[in-house]
Every structure is written in C-alpha cells, then in structure tokens.
Amino acid sequence: MSFSFASLTERERRMAIIGGGVAVALLLLGIILPLNRSVSRAHARVEHKQADLAWMRSVTPQLAGSGSAVAQPATQESLLVVVDRAARDAGLGSSLTSSEPSGAGGLRVRLDKAPFDILVGWLARLADQHSIRVESASIDSSGPGLVSAAVVLRTR
Question: Which helix (H) or strand (E) covers residue 4, if one does?
Fold first, then answer.
C-alpha cells in the first residue's frame, strides 16, 4: 500500500494541508507555549531568589556586628517557661504546637502556620534578652507569609 500526496484529489490535498496546519498549531499552543511560560516563571523565581540572597549577604555584616553584647538571663526560670512566655508575648502562642526537651539545656519547639517575620523577631529576642541560641532550625512555607518550623533552642 503506497501513499503519495500526488495521488490525492484536490479536496483531499487541501484537507491534508489544513489538517497538518491545525496539528502544528495545536502542538504549538498546547505544548510549547505552556512549557515556555513555565520556564519563564522558573527564571523569574531564580532571579528573585538571587536578589534576596544578595540582599541577605549585604546585611550580614550589620547583623553580625549588632549581636556582640549578649545579655545574661534575668531569672533562673526553666528554658521551657522562658520560651513559652516569650512566644505568647510575641503573638506566637496559637502557633506553638509542641515543646520537648532536647538534651541538657536544649528544647525542641514546633510551630505551625506562624508569621515568618514574627518568628524571626521572636528568635532574635530570645537570643538578645535571654541568651538562648538557635542550634538548628527547619522552616517550611505553609502559606503566604506563614511558615511551619521545628527549632532546637539551647541556653548559652
């Protein structure tokens, strides 16, 4: 069974050309353009993250220089009490889901759907006012401006 474009009637040739054009248009509109948009969005995200990284690197010396004086804890309260009170004072009481000891002088804290800016401010105040440092942290996005965090805190 041999197929030749020349053996088709004029009407069949026209339909084949139109069908080929439609197939190319569908391929272009259905696959290539959405793929191109996805790549463009990924490039924009990378550029945004690179700008954020550059900003973070530019303010690192300022932040490192401002933390030279370490305040001594005002009371002899337990780490759990200090962290819980500070979280509630910062407005993170509803986000604080669990606290459990983590070795000597350590506390593992879990926060869900906490505003990122408030969380960072709270951790900075713990370091400045109570000499509590962040030993490790895992922070994941849980919505616009909200994060879920697992933080291990330790007294200095």
Answer: none
How much is the pTM? 0.52
Residue 138 near residue 145 (C-beta atoms within 8 A): no
Enclosing H/E stretch for 7: none
Residue 79 CA to residue 73 CA, distance in Å, equals 10
Cα 139–Cα 147–Cα 85 angle in degrees, nearest 5: 90
DSSP 113: E
- Tokens at residue 81, please? 């009490």
Other C-beta atoms lying within 10 Å of the C-beta of residue 120: 14
d(C-alpha 16, C-alpha 5), whole Å: 9
Q: Which residues of the chain have pLDDT under 50?
A: 1, 68-73
3-state secondary structure 22-80: HHHHHHHHHHHHHHHHHHHHHHHHHHHHHHHHHHHHHHHHHHHHHCCCCCCCCCCCCHH
Q: Alpha carbon of 140 to those of 36, 43, 118: distances in Å?
A: 28, 22, 15
Nearest Cα to Cα of residue 79 among 43, 119, 129, 130: 130
Per residue in 104-114, pLDDT tens?
A: 888 999 999 99
